[in-house]
Amino acid sequence: MFAFLLVVGVSYYAVATSLIGLVGDYLFADRRSSDQAITEQLAVEIAPLYVNARINDLQTLLVASGGELGGRLMVLDMSGMVQADSFSELVGSLVELPEVASILTDGQTVDYGVHQLGSRQKMTFFSYVTPLNANAQWVGYSTAALTSGGQTVGLLLFSSPIQDVMQNLAKLQGKMWLYFLVTAAVASAIALLLSRIVTKPVATITRSIQRMGRGDLSVRVPVKGSGEMRKLSEAFNVMSEKLEMLDKSRNQFVSNASHELKTPLATMKILLENIIYQPDMDAAVRMDFLSDVNREINRLNMIISDLLTLVSMDSKNMRLKRETIKFAQVVKDVSHRLGMVAERRRQQIKLQISDNCEMYADTAKLTQVVYNIMDNAIKYTPEGGLIRVRLIRMGRDAILTIADNGPGIPQQDLPHIFDRFYRVDKARSRDTGGTGLGLSIVNQLVLMHGGTVSVQSEEGHGTTFTVELPIHQG
Fold first, then answer.
1. Is 110:39 a contact under the CB 8 Å cutoff?
2. What gap in Å lies between CA 152 and CA 47, rounded to an integer?
3. Residue 75, SS3?
4. Nearest to 163 by CA among 134, 125, 142
5. pLDDT tens for residues 204-241?
6. What's the rounded Cα separation, in Å, for the pair 448 and 454?
7. What is the CATH number of domain 323-470?
8. 134: helix, coil or strand?
9. Strands (E), 6-109
10. How far is Cα of residue 461 from the mean position of the Cα atoms in its chain?
11. Beta strand pairing status for 348-353 and 386-394?
């Protein structure tokens, strides 16, 4: 606020000073032209009397003219010495004024200046910066060269009081100071009002940020007013909500990961304890137990592998090894690999490929995308089901759809289908060997290629996954 008032004060003072200076220059310009005209005219009359040394006639003319003009007239020689004075007081005295020096030394013919009696400093535009002393004696000095035969032989000095002009300027300056004080008071009131309007929401946001720094991610700020502060409040609330969701997601992920890792370990512990504490166990039963342990170890490896894949993607350490590939060939290869699995379940995979969809992409990553989606379709579709795989090119995008005629996904589960460790039917998913991370990995890999993946499903009518990938050329 102090800085605001300082800027207002300096700006107003500069404007006021400039205004006073302009008014003063205008008033002095009028006086200057009048006094200089009189001085030049008298200099023409006085020059012959001064050259011919007619001192008495010269003195008489000075006294008469000075009385009519209400000022003082003096004739100076080339050394600046007074030779005649309408007041008969300074004859023989040396006059040192800038207006005299400009005639005798600099070669000018006329000059004018304003001085305060008792001070040799000439008044300039910068003199208006400081307060004017209206009670001091101010005079205007007008000088004109006395010439004979084209040569300067002396000068005429006319001094006239300009007290009326200076008093008007002093009054104007006083009014400006009064206006300045009123303006400063109004500016202070406006600054206080703006301070409450602007700084209060900023302070609220600052306190909320400090609370977030202490771990409270549920904090929100009220959205009030309009303009930039409203946008700032809305942006803060959106950021806070996303951070809170991210924190909850992270905590949920840690909890789910711990649970998923703990389950196979607990199963293996039970199986191994049975083998240890039953040394006379039947060989066939022992073999079944060991086979179960082996399956749990494989499942544990799958979970850890998928977790490491997600961690690599989250930390941005995973890089795509792009090359020019035919996406249609990737789809065909995955269909062939999973074909035997589908045959054992008496399922049919029906391919419909209308374009090779040549693109610049990572073969291994896209293979994993197609494999995870198609493997899910096979696992969660009943025996005798149909999986339709369709690949087309639409503009600059490759569109892959994988549809099954399985039980479908409930509507309340669809928004979470790509969440990590999320399962629609948790017990059944574990029976099929899933880790709950496959679709999350699919989503991340598709995003890394600049594409999108979506799902449409209805209970009892199957599920359709759609992958859209931009076709970039290497």
1. yes
2. 10
3. strand
4. 134
5. 888 888 888 777 878 888 887 677 778 888 888 888 88
6. 15
7. 3.30.565.10
8. coil
9. 72-76, 82-85
10. 51
11. parallel
2-185 CATH pick, 3.40.228.10, 3.30.450.20, 3.40.50.80, 2.40.50.140 = 3.30.450.20
In the prediction, which pLDDT does 471 show? 87
Distance of CA 48 to the CA centre of its chain: 78
| Residue ranges matching CATH 3.30.450.20 in the chain | 2-185
- Read off the pTM: 0.47
What is the DSSP track for 163-221? HHHHHHHHHHHHHHHHHHHHHHHHHHHHHHHHIIIIIHHHHHHHHHHHHHHTT-TT---
Residue type for 229, please?
Answer: M
Residue 56 token pair: 């008495």
> What's the average model confidence in pLDDT over 16-32?
68
Task: Give exposure, 262-291, as e/b (b: 16+ Cβ within 10 Å).
Answer: eebeebbeebeeeeeeeeeeeeeebeebee
What is the β-pairing status of strands 138-148 and 358-361?
A: unpaired
* Residues paired with residue 84 on neighbouring β-strands, in sequence order: 75
Length of the chain, in residues: 474
Q: Which CATH number fits domain 241-314: 2.60.120.10, 3.10.20.310, 1.10.287.130, 2.102.10.10?
A: 1.10.287.130
Q: Which two tokens stand for residue 433?
A: 């060997």
Question: Which residues make up the CATH 1.10.287.130 domain(s) of the chain?
Answer: 241-314
Where exactly does CATH 3.30.565.10 map onto the chain?
A: 323-470
Per-residue pLDDT tens digits for 86-134: 998 999 999 988 899 999 998 899 999 888 776 655 555 445 445 556 5
Residue 381 to residue 68: CA distance in whole angstroms: 123
- The structure tokens listed for 120 are 């040799």
Asked if residue 427 has pLDDT above 60, the reply is: no
Q: What are phi and psi of 133, to 5 degrees?
A: -95, 100
Q: How far apart are the first and last CA of the chain?
A: 58
Task: Work out the pLDDT band at 139, boundaries 50, 70, 90.
Answer: confident
